[in-house]
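Sorry to interrupt, but I need a hand with the structure work. Go ahead and set the record down below:
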Amino acid sequence: MPSPIRISFHGLDHSDAAEVSIRERIERLEQRCDRITGGRVVVEARNNSHSHLNAANRPFHVTIHLTVPGDALTANHDVKRPKSYNDIESAIADAFRAIDRKLTQYVERKSPKRRRGKTDPVEPVDHNAA
């Protein structure tokens, strides 16, 4: 059963293309970890007063929250090195790479093999694939 993942757009109109991309990426994550119980993806067009970008080209920011048994995983941009994307697909891909790393760490922590001292590497998902 697919997990209920809510997708919301703030500061921009809903994008069917962006939602399809997000849903496909979520599906790939769920294939690797069937323990995702819910979550939320927020796509924002930031209103950056220091930016010279016009209203149609405001920078995008994507935040992903996933709930898994015993934990909540959140991925967004590193506050020490904030990134702004003028391309919504790049922002989505970067956020999913970050949540993929956190989900991989979660799976490895919960793996019974790890508890016995034996781990198999988990293959990362290619979030650039269309």
Remarks:
- The two ends are 23 Å apart (CA to CA).
